[in-house]
Amino acid sequence: MENVKKIKIRCLHCSSIFNSPIFFDQFESFETCTLIGNIVQCPTCNEMTGCNKKNMSIKFEGGGFVGFDS
């Protein structure tokens, strides 16, 4: 089981990248969860943006990542 080190979100409005308020301890938890209907406020444009796997990047132990390249 690989520990999660960092989760980032890309705003669907301005493409700004910021730290996620949603966090997972283990990568397996992220893989098996369903993220539907979660929204967060972008600190750059102040718009509410979706918080789902398509616009999230997760870095985990061992240097790997899933999601957009940031």
- Gyration radius, in Å: 12 Å
Number of strands: 6
Count of discrete alpha- or pi-helical segments spanning 4 or more residues:
1
Distance between the termini: 23 Å
In the predicted model, the low-confidence regions spanning at least 5 consecutive residues are none
Give structural notes:
- With 70 residues, the chain is mainly β.
- The protein has one domain (4-62).
- 9% of the residues lie in helices and 34% in strands.
- It is built from 1 helix and 6 strands; from the N terminus they run ββαββββ.
- The chain has one helix at 27-32, and strands at residues 4-10, 17-19, 39-41, 48-50, 56-60, 65-67.
- The protein has a 4-stranded antiparallel sheet with strand order 2-1-5-6, with no helix packed on it. The protein has a two-stranded antiparallel ribbon with strand order 3-4.
State the main characteristics.
6 strands, mainly beta, two-stranded antiparallel sheet, 70 residues, 34% strand
Task: Describe what is shown at a glance.
This protein is mainly beta and 70 residues long. The chain has one helix and six strands, in the order E-E-H-E-E-E-E. The relative contact order is 0.32.
